[in-house]
Amino acid sequence: MTDMKKATASAADINKLAQIWANLPGWGSLAAVNHSTIGLRFMVTGMVFFLIGGVLAMLIRTQLALPEQSILSADVYGQLFSMHGSVMMFLFAIPVLEGLAIYLIPKMTGSRDLLFPRLSALGYYCYLFGGIIIMFSLVLGIAPASGWFMYTPLSSSEFSPGPGSDFWLLGITFVEISAMAAGIELTVSILCSRAKGMTLSRMPLFCWYILVMALMIVFGFPPLILASILLELERAAGMPFFTVAAGGDPLLWQHLFWLFGHPEVYIIFLPAAGIVSTLIPVFSGRPIVGYRWVVIGIILTGFISFGLWVHHMFTVGIPQLAQAFFSVASMLVAVPTAIQVFAWLATLWYGKVVFRLPMLWICGFLLIFVCGGLTGVMLALVPFNWQVHDTHFVVAHMHYVLVGGMFFPLIAGLYYWLPLVSGRMPSEKIGRWGFWLTFTGFNLTFLLMHLTGLLGMPRRVYTYEAGLGWDWLNLLSSVGSFIMAIGVAMVLLDLLLHFWFGKRASANPWHADTLEWALDMPPAQYNFASLPVVTSRQPLWHDPTLPQRIAAGEGGMADAASGRRENWGTSAVSARVVQTLHLPGNSWWPLYSALALAMVCISLLCRWYPLALLAAAGALVLLLCWSWDNGANLQPTASPGDAELALPLESQSTDGPGRWGMVVTLLANGALFMALLFGWFYLWTAAPQWSAPADGPLPVTLLLLCGALASVAVWQFNRLSVQLADGQDSHLHRQLWLCVLTGSAHFILLLSLFIMAPLAYTSSAHDAVIMVILLYLLGHAGLAVILTMLQALRVARGYVSKQRPYEPQVVKPFWFYYLSVYWLSIGLFFILPLGWGPLL
Amino acid sequence: MSWRRWCKPGHPAQLVLGLNLWGIWFIAMYAGLSVVCQFVAPAPQDGAANWLNYALFGLTLIVITLLLLLAGRGWRYCQSVQQDSRPQRFIAYVSTVLYLMAALATLAGALPVLVLPPCI
Question: In Å, how far are A313, A330, A529, B44 from A382, measured between CA atoms?
Fold first, then answer.
């Protein structure tokens, strides 16, 4: 295979590339899917939500500035602190970092776009609409008031009868679609479309951080999605998962929430640490010390952070030994963080540090985050944790970790990459004022808040009596918060003004080493005029002429001959070029699908269930149409004579990003299933009033028969996909319809069992869980049949054949996944209780 | 993709295998402890010296041994691959350290078993 085309990018090639990758004009920009556009939209929207969350914080601090104030009522205060936390965590921190990653990853990895650009667009619209729905509750004065963690039973219908909790549960779940989309998309894009030669060991550290963050989203968010669904089912349909009297347990919510909630802290921290690991080497003028150790630290953080969740629950009554496990794990997570901190310090020590504006924010980060980390270790100690539980000490710790660990690096990153976005430099003077005001204000607010907490002031109280020793601390904290607000306002002003008044940036203004600085400023929609080849960890330091050579068309895919959005597909470890990818272009499907999903969300909020059902069906149809539209095309691909013609298209191969995307999606799905399994066993063993019928709710023989049908369907599908991969498609169409037939028989039998099952799902947590698992299985069985049916139709139209064997290979993992969860469910939900029942 | 390839020291699956073992151990410890305490809790007067703690620590030793063996295998592979630029060597090195870290995390997590009674 020829490595690269030796051609010069002519003006015609550049124009053609620009045309192919351009967004539609006017309202058509709503159909844009390009990662630069979507990433920037995420970030701008995130900053708007940040301003709203900031205003809420100011109102909270105004109320608490003096004792016995009544500026806000208890109810309004409850809404404000709940919304402040929710907005900052779900609508600002995660989306803005996702936006940054969506914007930067292709540019850093030498690609033209992310691999599922329409998924990015869907994610953005779900985020936007979900955010608007949640904010609407605040405008109406019916916002959730149970805290950002929505503990049951406070958030249950008995104690929160209004729609506030529903807004949170439905809105946040809607927003989480966006996070999941980004998690899947970033994982696959980083693994499958890096520049040629960018092996895992040469990958920029930022990409390592984002890869681990994305995988943490994939595994971390499903428990919260499940918890939100269960609580909404309890509130709307009376299914008592968290009600003790019916065999539920409110502590299940805490477990599921913190199974998500603690990794969430690291989901926020890791991208920010990625910014730090990118900027410190640049401003130290040398490669990072201990690249491999930083990678080790990132992976360790990703794993260990999933083993800490119970430290949020030390006071709920857990055996000492279990508390000790989680206490040790909570202290252990400091080790990988320390590895990274020492690598940063060593890099600064050995380098010649230039204290430009971004570096100032990095220094602020180091100081604040290390302090936050130390109070984190204090909180990992059980007796200390008991002492300060639910006090302002925890609030102070959390802000030191999150503001220090996320906000400071984010601003450093925004300043650093600003010239790339706008082609202009920010004002050092305004920026420095902004930094010092923010830094001073932050420490005045939250350093003192540690003391307020140690003196016993509880969180979430809307006012307090005078003379308890908290007065002056609260006043100074409030003064500090306003100083910080002025600082943040100056930063935002600087960011805004620089678009008009900033000096023109020179090429690679920070003398950085990563590929994004090889681009024009601002970059073209297609990023690279020709795709780069990488031979070191610091491509621009190693080869300063690389930007010119890329622009001159000396890389790959310079001529855009196919007229489609093309990119290289590369192998995950060694970044060998293995296929040509045709990426989807502008599309209205994401917007229409998100609108339909928003309609589902609003209908559920208003309890218009028939409309919700109709909208859900509409959303499904839209998503299926989208999948049809996204599949292989029948057009010839590239002009003759191209070196890349030797590469197969994704549709002509049996493996590719679509298949990887399916597998990663199923990993997320599996995490949701495991969370449900956890809930089942938790209620079974820990719920005080759990009761289960002596004989199972469904006849086991029929369940086994049903499973046999599913097994046959999977066998049929597997056989046809293997034959197709071997180049045989003689009976493909008939085989697919046979598989549809068997799958449908399985679905109908399962549906009949479900309808006939005598489930008292409103009075028994046991039956409610059985109902959920049956619905889960039915949904998957139905989808598997529909996807197979679509494949049969696509075979008839010629989209799938032995020349294009790819799509069934994408559907196959779904069938295997379904079969696995089916048998696991039958074993663990229906058969195991029969044998174990007498023990209870 | 064959499972044999996944088991080779230079395969990227090794990057997560050690910590997955740690995760499974962690779940087994926490879940095992919770279930046993619910149904057949050892007598509180036995303190830390009881069959449940012995079983949990035994499981810990098995997991640590396995992790150390895998770390040793990875280290030997690192020594045998000389070219510094090979991505497989990078993976083997990182996964070797991760196996060691997972072993340390397992040991650290199990130390309370030696001193604390299980179900109080």
Answer: 10, 10, 57, 21
